[in-house]
Amino acid sequence: MPVKAVATAEVPPEATVVPAAKPDRSYFWDKLHSLTGIIPIGAFLAEHFWSNSYALVSVDRYNQASYDLQTIPWRVPVEALMIWIPLLYHGFYGIYIWSKGKSNVTRYDYGANWMYVLQRWTGLVAFVFIGWHVYLERFLTQGKSDYFDVSATLANPLFLGFYVVGILAVSYHFGNGLWQFANKWGLVVGRGAQRKAAWAAGTIGVLFALVGLAIVFSFVFQWHPFQFYAQ
Amino acid sequence: MAEGKTIVLKIKRRAGPAEPARWEEFAVAWRPNLNVIACLIAIAENPVTRDGRNTTPVSYESNCLEEVCGACAMVINSRSRQACSALVDQLEQPIRLEPMSKFPIVRDLVVDRSRMFENAKRLRCWVPIDGTYAIGPGPRVAPERQEVAYALSRCMFCGNCLEVCPKVNENSDFVGAALLNQVRLFNAHPTGRMHAHERLQAVRGIGGVQDCDNAQNCVKACPKNIPLTESNNDVNRQALLDAILGWMLR
Q1: Helices (H) and strands (E) in chain A, counts
Q2: Which pLDDT score, from 0 to 100, does residue A6 have?
Q3: Cα–Cα distance between B176 and B120 in angstroms, integer?
Q4: Structural Rg of chain A based on CA atoms
Q5: Contacts with A8 from chain B: Cβ below 8 Å
Q6: What is the CATH number of the domain that holds A88?
Q7: What residue spans define the domains of chain B?
């Protein structure tokens, strides 16, 4: 029995083959932007809230904690590599990403779409706030800020207001950023997993906001609820 | 409802890609179960505006009239959706029809969505089986995998997910959720998976998966209820693993 011939298409290859898209460096820079938000910036944020929580114990413990941090070895390179450079990159690259999007939340007013818009605005507020905060508490005090310097800043009601707004913006941006990270790195895929990650990230964001505000109120009202630890 | 009632439509028209846009109002006699495409057919039969001026029939695309072909996507009362499944009785009047804004306009409500098809080619969204000899049947697929893939395969390239996406616009090259879903679909196919690396490299190109910022409008707008955000995240995971493994192994 003759073998049936299999027909093959006789088409010149140039006519049909569209070149595949090539991997682009923007993939790396986008992933780096997303990563720097968690490590080191998010990690430093957690450390920063932790160290500043010493204000809730006592003035002495706070000053001791600041002194310990201010006298770490390799301070300036560590600050530059772990804080300044990642922050500047994350901030400016974030603005670049923002410029490539066009919000349509007035037309499509869904929850996640609002979170997309808020992520951008809180990022901007946080960036400005952090810049001002670093200038005030790091550079103006020549890196020797203590309890008295922070209290002096927060005695100004305008500055206090900016601190409250800044802490809320940073906490939202970090909480939602954790959820974004889980999505953008494919850590969660299914809708159930996305929802669980949203709850977890939201809880972390709320905790950061509460701890941040507690620290601010500790300075404003001389409130040291953990003072009995030191006695 | 009483017969003799009329439906008012406001349509954003444009005679050609370079022509200025203008709004025209039409009145169409109401009948039961009227949808937007039926209104456009009625206007084509009698192209007279509401104030009695003769005009050209409104150009639009449609085909299946049952939300499986994707042709008739347009912006109806500020929402991007299929016109065939837009029932007049469920719409606020006057019904405003606009062409989708994220694609080049051809005329009136017709837009050129070929960009999606070009991107499907650039992302290798097919299963290559052409060769010089018969390669026999492909591997069998477990029913539960079929179920996942079936949901993804319902995509009809209507473009609603691109229209509602804040990251798809003239400042960005983002390919959009439909295309990322295609990458997932063909990587899930047991024969298609043999070219997964090629797709995952392509999807890390300009406008690739990294441009998705999770506004998640796509999944709300999809008329086929495709879990698009899951596809975005799954392609993100695959692309990342491919990139990291590639960096370590190749």
Answers
A1: 10, 0
A2: 52
A3: 11
A4: 24
A5: 130-132
A6: 1.20.1300.10
A7: 6-111, 114-249
* CATH fit for domain B114-249, picks 1.20.1260.10, 3.40.50.720, 1.10.357.10, 1.10.1060.10: 1.10.1060.10
Å from B51 to nearest chain A CA?
A: 30
ipTM given for this complex: 0.91
- The pair of structure tokens assigned to A193 is 């997993």
Which of 70-89 (B) contact A at CB < 8 A?
A: 78-79
pLDDT tens, A3-18?
555 555 555 555 567 8
Residues 102-121 of B with CB under 8 A from A: 118-119, 121
| Contact yes or no for A186 and B79 at CB 8 A | no
Mean pLDDT of chain A: 93
pTM above 0.95, yes or no: no
Residue-range definition of the domain harbouring residue A125: 26-230
Task: Please check whether residue A9 lies inside any domain of the structure.
Answer: no
Which residues from chain A sit within 8 angstroms of residue B239, using beta carbons?
Answer: 27, 186
- Per the domain annotation, does A17 fall within a domain? no
> What confidence score (pLDDT) does residue B114 get?
95
Is residue A12 a part of any domain in this protein? no
Q: How confident is the model at residue A41 (pLDDT cuts 50, 70, 90)?
A: very high
* CATH code given to domain B6-111: 3.10.20.30
What pLDDT is attached to residue A18?
A: 82
Q: Is residue A8 one of the residues assigned to a domain?
A: no
Please name which of A20, A172, A43, A194 lies closest in space to residue B236, comparing C-alpha atoms.
A194
Q: Domain count for chain A, please give it.
A: 1
8 A C-beta contact, residue A32 and residue A89: yes
* pLDDT at res. B137: 87
The yes-or-no verdict on residue A78 having pLDDT over 60 is: yes
Contacts of B118 (CB under 8 A, 6+ apart): A18
Q: pLDDT for B123-176, tens place per residue?
A: 999 998 888 998 888 889 999 999 999 999 999 999 999 999 999 999 999 999
**Which of A22, A180, A185 faces B205 most closely, judged by CB atoms?**
A22
User: What 3-state DSSP class applies to B96?
Assistant: strand
Side-chain-facing half-sphere of A67: CA atoms under 13 Å: 6
Q: Which two tokens stand for residue B9?
A: 């439509």
Q: 């005695």: which residue's tokens? A: A155
> Chain B partners of A30 at a C-beta cutoff of 8 Å?
210-211
The owner of tokens 């100004």 is A156
* Other Cβ atoms closer than 10 A to A75: 12
Task: Give the relative orientation of helices B228-249 and A157-184 as an angle to the nearest 10 degrees.
Answer: 80
